[in-house]
Amino acid sequence: MGFFGHLGDALSGKIYKQNTLVGSNIAKLLEKSQKLPDSKFVKHWAFACVLSCNVSLEYLLFEKEGEEINAFKKNIGKLDVNGVFEIIKLLTGHYLSAFKRNEGNVNILKKLNMNIEKLEEDVFSIFSFTRDDEKIFRELDKEFDDDSAKYFLHLYQKIFEKAYEMPDEKDAFGSMLMSGIISNTYTGVFINALSDKLKGK
């Protein structure tokens, strides 16, 4: 993008929204997680998760493609910093559900004298999950294996209920768009970032 493209973004308020809605949340979470000792696996897990959430939110909220049909963008005026944090917690739950179902990941935890339960507990703490957040995570996590289409639709609905205060959003296209983006960021961003951190890169 050239200079005038960036200028257009600035004039439209896009950069301000990105910094205010997403950037402030990302910065706080990174600061909180990186205070942990390097020996803590969850420090690297949280870093990879925050990075993945940031990339997902950039696509869902600010990419111009599909703007007219993307409910995430169309309703951005309903979002505030706290609403975006609700999205981050729900996306974190997704990355956690995906991570714990990979046998290789479970073996890594065993080698580090950790288990899934302890990882969940640490992640809930770093990302400030409430009891309600934990309950939602458990409900969605149970659906993860049973019916992926239903899982992603319910995750989508929870995002709009918790972040946008739109409990009746049931757009199948929107949930498909979201599922593609967050599945790609899990494999293309989360796993790579975590692997690099564990290798000391």
Describe this structure in words.
The protein is mainly alpha-helical. The protein has one domain. It is built from ten helices and no strands. The protein has helices at 3-12, 14-33, 41-62, 71-74, 81-100, 103-111, 116-126, 131-146, 148-162, 172-198. Helix 3 packs antiparallel against helix 10 (172-198) and helix 5 (81-100) packs across helix 8 (131-146). The radius of gyration is 17 Å and the shape is globular. Mean pLDDT is 88; it is low at 1-12.
User: What is the chain-wise order of helices and strands?
Assistant: HHHHHHHHHH
The count of helical stretches stands at: 10
Specify the helix fraction band: over 70%
Secondary-structure-derived class: mainly alpha
Number of strands: 0
User: How far from one another are the termini?
Assistant: 29 Å
Integer count of domains: 1
Task: Note the overall shape.
Answer: globular
Q: Are there runs of 5+ residues with pLDDT below 50, and where?
A: 1-12
The whole-angstrom Rg is 17 Å
List keywords for this structure.
201 residues; mainly alpha; 10 helices; 77% helix
Summarize the structure.
The chain has 201 residues and is an all-alpha fold.
Helices and strands in order, then pairings?
Layout: H1 3-12, H2 14-33, H3 41-62, H4 71-74, H5 81-100, H6 103-111, H7 116-126, H8 131-146, H9 148-162, H10 172-198
